[in-house]
Amino acid sequence: MVLVLAGVLGLAVGSFLNVVVHRVPRDESLLRPRSHCPACAAPIRHRHNVPVVGWLVLGGRCADCRTRVSVRYPLVELGTALLFVAITARFGVTWALPAYLYLAAIAVPLALIDLDVQRLPNRIVLPSYLVGAVLLLGAAALGSDHAAAIRAILAMTVLYGGYWLLAFAYPGGMGFGDVKLAGLLGLYLGWLGWSSVWVGTFTAFLLGGTVGVVLLATRRATGKTPIPFGPSMLAGGLLAVFAAAPLANWYASVVYPAG
C-alpha cells in the first residue's frame, strides 16, 4: 500500500515537474498562469490534467487546437512515479525517505533542463541545499546517527571543492552549475556513506565519458560541442543510492582482477 501511495504521489509530482521544466528556463512563475497549451494558450481542463491518463485520452494532442503534445510529458510523470516507488522500496518508511524523494523530484527537471538549455538553474539547485540539509540532518538527529550528519557535510565540502578545482582548471569542460550540483549530491551521498560518494562520482565521469565518446563516434558532436554533464552526475548519484556496494565491488574487480 505504501508503494502504491508513493506511485500516486510520484505521478502528481511528475505533472508539476513538467511545468518546472517548461517554465524555469524562461524565468516564468510556476503558479500563474494555470497550465495551458504552449501553442494556442488554451487552459488545460482539469479532467485532462490527470497524469498520463489525460495525455492518452486526448491522443497526445491539445483538446482545442489539436497541436501534438510531446510524449515527454507522460514519460516524465511515469518516470517520476517509478522513481518514487523505487526510493520508497529502498528506504522504507524512515526519517530519510522524504529527503531522497525530494532528491528524485529535483533530479528529473535538472537533467531535462540541462539537456534542453545546458543550464542547472540556481532557482532549483541553491534552495535544495537548505531543503536537503534540513531533511537529512533532521533524519540523522531523529535516528541518533550523528556520524551520517558529519559525513554528509564533509562529502558536500569535498565534492564542491573538487569540482570547483576542475572547473577552474578546465572551464571549457566543466561549468559552475556542475560545481553547485556536485556539492548537493555530496550531501546526499555522504549521508549514506563514503562508498556511495566515490561510486556516485566515478559513475558520473564514466557515464559522461561514454556519452561523449558515442556522440563523437557518431559525429553528433565535435570536440567543441558542449555536452551537458548534469544528467550523468544525477544518474551516477541515483545509481549510488541504489547500488553503491555492488557497483564498488564490480569496479574493484575490473581494476584489480582476481588471479
Automatic annotation (TrEMBL):
It catalyses: Typically cleaves a -Gly-|-Phe- bond to release an N-terminal, basic peptide of 5-8 residues from type IV prepilin, and then N-methylates the new N-terminal amino group, the methyl donor being S-adenosyl-L-methionine. Residues 102-212 form the Prepilin type IV endopeptidase peptidase domain. This is Prepilin leader peptidase/N-methyltransferase. Plays an essential role in type IV pili and type II pseudopili formation by proteolytically removing the leader sequence from substrate proteins and subsequently monomethylating the alpha-amino group of the newly exposed N-terminal phenylalanine. Residues 8-91 form the Prepilin peptidase A24 N-terminal domain. Belongs to the peptidase A24 family. The chain crosses the membrane at residues 6-24, 99-117, 124-142, 148-166, 197-217, 229-252. It comes from Cryptosporangium aurantiacum. Gene3D superfamilies: 1.20.120.1220. It is found in: Cell inner membrane; Cell membrane. GO terms for molecular function: aspartic-type endopeptidase activity; methyltransferase activity. Keywords: Cell inner membrane, Cell membrane, Hydrolase, Membrane, Methyltransferase, Multifunctional enzyme, Protease, Transferase, Transmembrane, Transmembrane helix. The keyword Cell membrane applies. It is a multi-pass membrane protein. Its EC number is 2.1.1.-, 3.4.23.43. The keyword Cell membrane applies. InterPro entries: Peptidase_A24A_bac (IPR014032), Prepilin_IV_endopep_pep (IPR000045), Prepilin_pept_A24_N (IPR010627), Prepilin_peptidase/N-MTase (IPR050882). It holds the Pfam family A24_N_bact. One of its GO terms (biological process) is signal peptide processing. One of its GO terms (cellular component) is plasma membrane.
